[in-house]
């Protein structure tokens, strides 16, 4: 009986760190601007949106099976125009929606401004892991890329390269936005002109629960159609 | 909205018998000052949208539509 109890204590002691670790990562934002000529009449607004996006920070909260990604510094006490510009900068450059990721179900749920839930089932991302490495905040990271396909306005299929730097020493499969599935936390991710870079990494022995929103979910296509109807398109 | 409008009204009349025919026409012109701020804002939002979605591929049709972004941009015009 004593032996069983000892074995039980040993088992709990050894496995608790593995099963209860969680963490949070804060990401800062960088927007790269190319030499593309911007029309004079919209240049000021365009540059203002980039300036706003660069002030934003995002947080990724994760445990072993799920993660939550959202903006950290939500806008408060701004006038209506500034609030709308802030929202546009998120839509255009960073992240408009909250993102909940469930690794075991391979699905993400995004919660929009209007409290609409968009569910997406993901096959595993076809990440290509390279030998290229660098250190981010003292964590050795390897580069991985993934080709993301999307429908272009001209009807053809377009693709963009998503670049991630992940840390194998942080064995959690999560990252910013809806990207996950690498054998380590994504500490840097570049999508189009936007880069999310981990500025603060905290690992906790405590289990942080991630409460998924409940309610009816729709697809991205259904959401887009809903907005089109509202705009009279 | 206040529109610029030009209206032209023309009519012709004839008389019976051996009288000289007379044709009369009358034109009415109405001009007003045009101010359509909501159209300007919508155009600005549309131009910004085109630039933002094509920012990474260099042509207006090679990007992908983002209806959420378009909706957010148009919301600026409801201020």
TrEMBL record, chain A:
Pfam families in the record: Porph_ging
Signal peptide: 1-20
Species whose genome carries this gene: Flavobacterium luminosum
NCBIfam families: GLPGLI (TIGR01200)
Name assigned to this protein: GLPGLI family protein
Keywords: Signal
Automatic annotation (TrEMBL), chain B:
Domain of life: Bacteria
Protein name in the entry: Uncharacterized protein
Higher taxonomy: Bacteria, Pseudomonadati, Bacteroidota, Flavobacteriia, Flavobacteriales
């Amino acid at each position: 009986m004593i032996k069983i109890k000892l074995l039980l204590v040993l088992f709990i002691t050894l496995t608790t760190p593995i099963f209860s670790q969680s963490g949070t990562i804060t990401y800062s934002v960088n927007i790269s601007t190319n030499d593309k000529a911007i029309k004079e009449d919209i240049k000021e607004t365009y540059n203002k949106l980039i300036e706003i996006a660069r002030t934003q920070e995002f947080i990724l909260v994760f445990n072993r099976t799920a993660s939550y990604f959202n903006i950290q510094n939500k806008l408060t006490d701004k006038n209506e125009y500034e609030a709308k510009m802030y929202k546009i900068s998120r839509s255009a450059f960073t992240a408009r929606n909250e993102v909940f990721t469930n690794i075991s179900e391979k699905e993400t749920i995004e919660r929009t401004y209007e409290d609409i839930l968009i569910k997406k089932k993901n096959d595993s991302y076809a990440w290509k892991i390279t030998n290229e490495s660098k250190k981010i905040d003292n964590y050795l990271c390897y580069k991985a890329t993934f080709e993301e396909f999307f429908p272009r306005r001209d009807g053809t299929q377009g693709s963009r390269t998503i670049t991630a730097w992940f840390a194998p020493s942080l064995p959690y499969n999560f990252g910013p936005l809806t990207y996950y599935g690498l054998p380590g936390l994504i500490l840097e991710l570049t999508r189009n002109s936007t880069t999310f870079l981990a500025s603060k990494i905290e690992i906790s022995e405590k289990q942080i629960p991630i409460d998924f929103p409940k309610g009816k979910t729709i697809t991205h296509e259904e959401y887009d159609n809903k907005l089109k109807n509202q705009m009279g398109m | 909205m206040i529109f610029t409008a030009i209206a032209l009204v023309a009519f012709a009349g004839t008389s019976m018998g051996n009288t000289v025919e007379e044709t009369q026409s009358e034109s009415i012109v109405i001009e007003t000052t045009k101010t359509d701020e909501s159209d300007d804002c919508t155009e600005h939002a549309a131009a910004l949208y085109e630039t933002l979605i094509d920012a990474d591929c260099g042509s207006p049709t090679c990007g992908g539509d983002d209806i959420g972004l378009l909706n957010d941009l148009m919301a600026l015009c409801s201020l």
